[in-house]
Amino acid sequence: MGIVVIGTVAIDDVVTPFGENLDAPGGSATYFSLSASCFTRVKLVAVIGRDFPKKHIQLFKKKNIDIEGLEQKEGKTFRWEGKYGWDLDNPQTIATHLNLLQSFNPVIPQSYKNEEMLFLANIDPELQLKVLDQTQAKIIAADTMNFWIERKRNKLLEVLKRLDILIINEYEARQLTRESNLLKAGKKIISYGAKKVVIKKGENGALFVSKSGFFTCAAYLMEDVLDPTGAGDTFAGGFLGYLSKSKRYDDSAIRTALAYGTVMASFAVENFDIKGLAGLTSVKIQKRLKVFKRICSF
Amino acid sequence: MGIVVIGTVAIDDVVTPFGENLDAPGGSATYFSLSASCFTRVKLVAVIGRDFPKKHIQLFKKKNIDIEGLEQKEGKTFRWEGKYGWDLDNPQTIATHLNLLQSFNPVIPQSYKNEEMLFLANIDPELQLKVLDQTQAKIIAADTMNFWIERKRNKLLEVLKRLDILIINEYEARQLTRESNLLKAGKKIISYGAKKVVIKKGENGALFVSKSGFFTCAAYLMEDVLDPTGAGDTFAGGFLGYLSKSKRYDDSAIRTALAYGTVMASFAVENFDIKGLAGLTSVKIQKRLKVFKRICSF
Questions:
Q1: pLDDT per residue as tens digits for the range B12-31
Q2: A183 → closest Cβ in B86, B223, B294
Q3: DSSP B58-118
């Protein structure tokens, strides 16, 4: 068991209606790794600059995340500036500074090559393809975003053909397929070549579609969401982390995995940046899963 | 067991992206009655004009809906003209012709007075209060809409204080409480005096809140929705119909009732007006409930 993740490790400047959080740890691979490491062995591939704070690297180590593939180079770390409105959904991107990401050439270290699962977190589909050429993983999952759907649709469709699981949000699913109905969108994504698709609906749960059917997972309803940044990557981390741990990919395992993804995302959003994930224990996760089951089963 | 419902029996002119449906049977009490009658005895209080087609009255009879309280008077039936966009959500009201509804003075027939449950479907809160003064029902539930929240807020708050269950949609819940978070909105409604509240979220399921907690119910995901008119009233009919039949109001019964409400609404929206409900059998309902459980349990 074990997951290799390739994505961004970033510095975020985030503004939500509840406050400003500058120079915060962020990035798709950061959230994914911290979440998945609660379930399974995680091996990280990403690039950071000399400006990336040591304490966050220490946190990766503390969480037993393998950082052999975390390249630290001269230059600046990728930086994202975003702003959320009162709906706490779909943030406005104020600025994206690619910095070292611009010349990133991801290489999977030799010691990562036996891991069963690969997650291509949100990053340029051309980089995702480069990584796909280096892997022998049995289960390959990926995420993407509106930016790539608009600008690199054809490369993204190439990635899709090679995926076991695509994990995207509802806006991306609609944009990618030009279908407003999410079930139709899910089926269309399957027709593009991905074997399975998880469509994340934020505070409205998630939808899973495969060739053989579909099912839904409710959201963990919360009164106080402070910062939704990273919720989707954290969801993916819980989802794939559980699958990696359980070594099963049948419907029943996937249902449970969706629930774990949901629960992990709920921890992420109730605090700024990675604070909700940093001190998370297995006991807390199990306790919330129990509550979640209680509030959405019948 | 048995439910008295007071609301509108109407003629609707509805336009959806999939077609135009003119002179169609509609109204809150119509959808509610047809749905609830699949579970329990329903007794209808409403007013219609001479223009209301006989065949729809025949349908009420065929469904064993008691129409002693359905007053037919000289004049025209209440008429609603609405238009749905591609989101098939929140229709635009093109016109509302109150007609006989303007002078409606609802009277609960003597033979209705022993029923255990009363549902005040969406209608002027002043009329809802008049009905409340005539009832000895043990369980009182109600719905309302944006029009009354704006124009008769104080009367509506008087109604709320006397309710066991308020059943409204997410837009109404936010408007009524001025809270964007639905869980907070639900708790605020409880603080207004309603003992329990069901917040309907359309294709995103439903949320139940009471003093002792909350839980959620997923939606029955569909590829093809033709006409969402009456979905909310149909949901309420399935929800209360099941509770009336089961004679239980504990959490477990309410969870099952939410599922039945969801399933009933799914039948309503897959066809125009009441067509999806008219020929519905118990076997079809049970079959869909089974599918629903399968797609949203974990």
A1: 999 998 899 999 999 999 99
A2: B223
A3: HHHHHTTEEEEEEEEESS---EEEEE--TT--SPEEEEEE-GGGGG------GGGTT-SEE
For A297, the enclosing helix (H) or strand (E) is none
Render the burial of A264-274: b for 16+ CB within 10 Å, e for the rest. Answer: bbbbbbbbbbb
Please give the domain boundaries of chain B with CATH numbers for all domains.
3-296 (3.40.1190.20)
What does the DSSP assignment read for B199-245? EE-GGG-EEEEETTEEEEE-----S-----TTHHHHHHHHHHHHHHH
Q: Which of B46, B64, B68, B69 is nearest to B121 (CA)?
A: B46
Return the amino acid letter for A175.
Q
Kindly report the nearest CA distance between residue A170 and chain B, in angstroms.
Answer: 12
Closest chain B residue to the Cα of A218, Cα to Cα:
B218
Distance CA B276, CA B265 (A): 9
- Residue A41 phi, psi (nearest 5): -75, 130
What is the pTM assigned to this prediction?
0.88
Three-class secondary structure of residue B262 per DSSP = helix
Nearest in space to B80 (alpha carbons), one of B131, B151, B19, B147? B147
* pLDDT tens column, B161-187: 999 999 999 999 999 999 989 999 999
The contact set of A with B (CB < 8 A) is 86-87, 180-184, 201, 204-205, 207, 213-219, 221-225, 255-256, 258-259, 293-298
**Burial (CB count <10 Å: 0-12, 13-18, 19+), residue A116:** middle
| Segment (H or E) for A216 | strand A213-217
Q: Cα–chain-centroid distance for residue A121?
A: 6
CB–CB of B207 and A221 under 8 A?
yes
Token pair for residue B89?
A: 């959500």
Q: Which of A52, A37, A114 is CA-nearest to residue A279?
A: A37
User: A63-122: per-residue pLDDT in tens?
Assistant: 999 999 999 999 999 999 999 988 787 788 999 999 999 999 999 999 999 999 999 999
Pairwise CA distance, residues A273 & A59, whole Å: 13
- Left (φ > 0), alpha (ψ -120 to 50) or beta: where does B289 sit? alpha
Distance CA B218, CA A238 (A): 21
Q: Please report, in angstroms and rounded to a whole number, the separation of the first and last CA atoms in chain A.
A: 33
Other Cβ atoms closer than 10 A to B283: 8
Integer Cα distance of A168 and B31 in angstroms: 37
